[in-house]
Amino acid sequence: MDSYLLIPFLPLAAFFINIIFGRTLIKDKAHWVSILAVFGSWVVSMMAVAEVLQGKTVNADLYTWITSGGFKVSVGFLIDQLTSVMLVVVTTCSTLIHIYSAGYMHGDKGYYRFFSYLSLFTFSMLMLVTANNFLQLYFGWEAVGLCSYFLIGFWYEKKSASDAGKKAFIVNRFGDFGFGIGVIMIFLTFGTLHYIPIFGAVNGMVGQTVDFLGMQVDLPTLIALLLFCGAVGKSAQIPLHVWLPDAMEGPTPVSALIHAATMVTAGVFMVARCNPIFSLSPVAMDVVAIVGAVTALFAATIGLVQNDIKRIIAYSTVSQLGYMFLACGVGAYGAGIFHLYTHAFFKALLFLCAGSVMHAMAGELDLQKMGGLKKYMPWTYLTMFVASLSIAGVPGLAGFFSKDEILWLAYSGPSPVGKLVWAIGTIVAFLTAFYSFRLIFLTFHGKFRGSHEQEHHLHESPKVMTIPLMILCVGAIASGWVGIPSLLGGGAHFTEFMKPVLGHLEGHGTHAEEWMVMAISVVAGLSGIGLAAFVYLREGDLAATVTQKFRFVHQVLWNKYYVDELYDFIIVRPTIWIAKNVIVGVTDGKIIEGIVNGVPELIGRFSLWLRSIQTGMVHQYAAVMAIGAFVVIAMVLLW
Amino acid sequence: MIPLHWYLWLSAVVFMVGVAGFLMRRNIIIMFMSIELMLNAVNISLVSFSRYLDDMRGQILVFFIIAVAAAEAAIGLGIIIALFRNKVTAHVDEANEMKG
Questions:
Q1: Labelling A522: which of A45, A143, A379, A609 has CA 20 to 30 A away?
Q2: Nearest CB to B100 within list A614, A619, A626
Q3: Cα–Cα dist A76/A416, whole Å
Q4: Residue A611 at interface with chain B, using a CB cutoff of 8 Å
Q5: What is the ipTM of this complex?
Q6: pTM assigned to the model
Q7: CA-CA distance, A28 to A106, in Å (whole number)?
Q8: Could you tell me if B3 lies within 8 Å of chain A, comparing CB atoms?
Q9: CATH number for the domain running over B4-93
Q10: pLDDT tens digits, residue range A360-379?
Q11: Is pLDDT at A540 greater than 70 in this prediction?
Q12: Where are the domains of chain B?
């Protein structure tokens, strides 16, 4: 057990070493410290996973963190089936992306800083997934948010980057506010924050109501929805999705690790972890499913028309996260976590490939200026192609198995909104395939559309970058093979493995129906690819014609449904107006500055008056003294 | 024997002359002399109390006062000379640099 401590604390040690000695001693060797630490953490994680695979889970309190009256919280670790999957995802992606970053960030002046933050992030994420109580989860939750802020604004001289960092942080405040209240509600209800006693006692909550803003609300529904608030913020679901696309201002390895593979999936992890609470509330479950499905569709449609290579993948991430919530919402937590796990590989791979392309294009992000990169960067092309096939759900690859499982369980499960979200999910599968391959075709096929200078510069990335791509590519192909459904002759080992934590949702349907669902999703994926090929591989400007024809739709999608503008109008501007006119003008300007400046002003005036007593005239002093003496004597004599 | 209150009246009159001189005159030398007058008025009353009460402590105190007054006269005159060197006047109203 003690060796498990190394899992989070090796990266923490790397953080401290790099942040303290990075600037003066380690400098451009910073990657060695971080990579070795994260690799060590990966090795220990794999040992932990091997133990869990044999059925040995761990739940241990190590240290009493807070004791205050009836409030007791320990620092403790819970390593069970769900945690072990997250450990695989986090440490594997983290290790590969650390290695990749050594090539990608080479020569950056914040090199040591980058690796310190990356290691701090890995530590925080591991604390989040291994926590055995809500407070430690909350600690990890906020710490990953902080690292996300650091890394989005890594190039802080750039205004857009520092703005994006602030936006991510502030938008997450909205979600975390609800999450914090949810944790407090849990403590008030159960008197503890530790998972095991809480999940053992949840059934006592059934039928309880609580007074919330003057309404009687079902207690499990309230807690579940408050927790889901946090998940909506962290995992960029509607209506708090706006920060994730902007987060792409950060360096690409950060986008891959934090904003695709790990941190943003924390919301899904948390919902899955709290499944005993969510399962008590059909209302909350339906909300989760609908929000997930709507986000999936919404983000996918935006992804169709964007031209920024990283933003397309970012919207794709939002959309796939919606898929995971959709799965959780219909009760298929196992399938949701399965998709989280496969998604981590192919999405990290997509981002790293995009980074590789940017590396070759000297930071160019615009798809319209690329094209024909296939022959310059064969490895990047190959791996990105495989990742796109995987996300499009082509049979045999990782994305196919997880997506198919979600769709089948949505279709056949007991959820009242199941059929609806299944239909949306299938449409999204088609859209996903289309925009993923639009990206591939515009980037790697056809003629080069950039400047001559850029064309001259094109090259494949160094080995330190392409080797992680290849390893992730293996993951994007094979990670789904642990969950091949029994219909295709597999054992559905993944959901079976997760059963002790997440329960098991049986689909109720015939084999024929299961084949049909699978066939529809495969057809949707393949036709998406086909349509992309039809539009973007042929010579001619079919895309432009269609854009012209549906000008209005294109405008709406291009402007991301004007959500940013809406928030700007209803939140940002009023806030700034209040800040300027009320806070600066009244509270700060009149009240606070009034007191701060008024008191010395008053004392100053009083002293000015007092000064005039001291005239420098000896006679006046003498006269006052004499009068004083007479008064004293008079008092002595007359009293 | 001359009654005690005669001496006390004398002491009071001399003291009041000193007070009046100190308050009314502007010449610093005169003011200084007024201070000496006040001191000696006090000395007179101390000595007479001492004599009438048959207690030597009053006279001992007077010796102390005379010694202190001598020292004070030396320092005071020094200050007056320094003032006169700087201001070329003995008029106290012209020396009001110490006002607030």
A1: A379
A2: A614
A3: 38
A4: yes
A5: 0.84
A6: 0.82
A7: 8
A8: no
A9: 1.10.287.3510
A10: 888 888 888 888 888 889 99
A11: no
A12: 4-93
